[in-house]
Automatic annotation (TrEMBL):
<feature type="transmembrane region" description="Helical">
    <location>
        <begin position="268"/>
        <end position="289"/>
    </location>
</feature>
<feature type="transmembrane region" description="Helical">
    <location>
        <begin position="331"/>
        <end position="350"/>
    </location>
</feature>
<feature type="transmembrane region" description="Helical">
    <location>
        <begin position="155"/>
        <end position="177"/>
    </location>
</feature>
<feature type="transmembrane region" description="Helical">
    <location>
        <begin position="122"/>
        <end position="143"/>
    </location>
</feature>
<feature type="transmembrane region" description="Helical">
    <location>
        <begin position="390"/>
        <end position="413"/>
    </location>
</feature>
<keyword id="KW-0812">Transmembrane</keyword>
<dbReference type="InterPro" id="IPR005828">
    <property type="entry name" value="MFS_sugar_transport-like"/>
</dbReference>
<keyword id="KW-0813">Transport</keyword>
<feature type="transmembrane region" description="Helical">
    <location>
        <begin position="189"/>
        <end position="208"/>
    </location>
</feature>
<dbReference type="Pfam" id="PF00083">
    <property type="entry name" value="Sugar_tr"/>
</dbReference>
<feature type="transmembrane region" description="Helical">
    <location>
        <begin position="356"/>
        <end position="378"/>
    </location>
</feature>
<feature type="transmembrane region" description="Helical">
    <location>
        <begin position="97"/>
        <end position="116"/>
    </location>
</feature>
<dbReference type="GO" id="GO:0016020">
    <property type="term" value="C:membrane"/>
</dbReference>
<dbReference type="GO" id="GO:0022857">
    <property type="term" value="F:transmembrane transporter activity"/>
</dbReference>
<feature type="transmembrane region" description="Helical">
    <location>
        <begin position="29"/>
        <end position="55"/>
    </location>
</feature>
<feature type="transmembrane region" description="Helical">
    <location>
        <begin position="67"/>
        <end position="85"/>
    </location>
</feature>
<feature type="domain" description="Major facilitator superfamily (MFS) profile">
    <location>
        <begin position="29"/>
        <end position="443"/>
    </location>
</feature>
Length: 455
């Protein structure tokens, strides 16, 4: 390892960010990233709402191979995109990916609305997933790297909570369109309108500077200082006129370092947590609208029910934002995962419509709280030179699970509800064990800047 001796009186980026405090810059960044995150949620969950209309347009049978291809195409694209864009963001900087992925997501999302056939729609959804898969590692790295230590966990959960807003928006939009248009037409409008919030997010992102941590890790001290001065100006603070301390770094950082030493163990355990939580979450919620419809619920009622379940996510996020700073990231994540496993079995035992709604709401509360804690925990476990690469890899494992989840979730429609929910509960329990096995608490800790021998 090569090290660089900082100049006398040099200031670390952590010290600078903490000194500039929490202010308008961080709140604006939260809103900008949150808008795009809500738009991504709409795109990811879109097919569950559009599927009835698409099935009518192209003559698809419930649970058919073509239906599973359609549901997995977005996730398959996100799998490739998360790995690719995470690596690019660590090599070339956060901001380029921060802008490019959102622009591509809007273009490909709109193309899907005009798809003349099922094959074209599958390709458009894959490319949309490829684009939005890159926003995940970059947005969370940017947020983690701009927020003071004392507020970082809370803000990362706040960012994830915009997923609930996106869920509410897509459910409300689907419900409204179902009352205005026949299903065979409504799905095209749904895809087209769902792509537009990303355009607003792209315009808002143009004023966001690159991460000073990433810039400094790549030897760009002057742009890093300029980015910090922008934070200082918006927060009405003064940046001390001292040099920035460059972090220790290896001569060459490669993705292979994610799997060496203690960092390798951490990566594998995190990958298992992301995989298990994603398989259960998407296995349940990708098919839930179709499952409710198969139980005899009319389409408008299905969308209204899904809207209520999205509202149940909000208190889950609020509690998670409190707990990650009160009891820590790891304990909060494990507690929510155990609650999700219990919720899956309560859903299985539900015998009346009211019980189905109540247990579904509990699942929604617990699962989205778990996602909030996981998104807060993960970027804090990786050093700056590998932060988006690490986020990209473990979130890519979630996309592997997402690709598999429609096939597993189809058990809900084929009458094998006990088998499906037992599998999902097992995934949540395994994820809880792996999260606890990481053995590191990041609450109140500054972000690691260098790849140390124990990482």
């Amino acid at each position: 390892m090569t090290t660089q001796t900082p100049p006398a009186g040099a200031m670390s980026v952590d010290a600078a960010i903490d000194g500039l405090g929490l202010g308008p810059f961080q709140w604006r960044l939260l809103l900008i990233c949150g808008l795009t995150w809500a738009a991504d949620a709409m795109e990811v969950l879109l097919m569950g709402f559009a599927l009835p209309g698409i099935a009518e347009s192209f003559g698809l049978r419930p649970g058919s191979t073509e239906t599973r291809w359609l549901l997995t195409s977005t996730f398959a694209g996100m799998f490739v995109g998360a790995w690719f864009w995470g690596w690019v963001a660590d090599r070339l900087g956060r901001r380029q990916v921060f802008l490019t992925t959102v622009a591509l997501g809007v273009v490909f999302g709109l193309l899907g609305a005009f798809a003349p056939g099922l094959g074209w729609l599958v390709v458009a959804r894959f490319l949309t997933g490829f684009a939005i898969g890159g926003t995940l590692p970059v947005d969370y790295a940017m947020m983690a790297e701009f927020v003071p230590t004392a507020w970082r966990g809370r803000f990362l959960v706040y960012l994830e909570s915009f997923w609930a807003l996106g869920t509410i928006m897509v459910a409300a939009l689907a419900w409204s369109l179902s009352t205005l248009l026949p299903p065979g037409e409504a799905w095209r409008w749904l895809l087209g309108l769902a792509a537009l919030p990303g355009l607003v997010g792209l315009l808002a992102r143009l004023g966001v500077p690159d991460s000073p941590r990433s810039l400094l890790a790549r030897g760009k001290e002057a742009p890093a200082r300029a980015a910090l001065k922008r934070v200082a100006r918006l927060n009405r603070k003064t940046l001390p006129d001292v040099p920035l301390a460059a972090p220790e770094h290896t001569a060459r950082v490669t993705p292979a370092q994610l799997f060496s030493g203690g960092l390798g163990r951490r990566t594998l355990l995190l990958a298992a947590v992301w995989f298990g939580l994603s398989l259960g979450y998407y296995g349940i919620f990708s098919w839930l609208p179709s499952f409710l419809k198969a139980q005899g619920m009319e389409l408008g009622a299905v969308y209204r029910t899904t809207l209520l379940l999205a509202l149940a996510q909000v208190p889950g996020y609020i509690l998670a934002a409190y707990l990650v700073e009160r009891i820590g990231r790891r304990a909060t994540l494990v507690g929510y995962l155990l609650g999700s496993a219990a919720g899956a079995y309560l859903f299985l035992a539900a015998g009346t419509p009211v019980q189905v709604l109540a247990t579904s709401a509990l699942l929604s509360f617990a699962l989205l709280g778990a996602w909030g804690a996981l998104y807060a925990y993960t970027p804090e476990l990786y050093p700056t030179p590998l932060r988006t690469t690490g986020m990209g890899f473990v979130s890519g494992m979630a996309r592997v699970a997402s690709v598999l989840s429609p096939s597993v979730g189809a058990l809900l429609l084929t009458g094998q509800l006990p088998a499906a929910l037992t599998l999902f509960a097992g995934c949540f329990l395994l994820a809880a064990l792996c999260a606890w096995g990481i053995g590191i608490e990041t609450r109140g800790q500054r972000l690691p800047e260098a790849i140390g021998p124990q990482q």
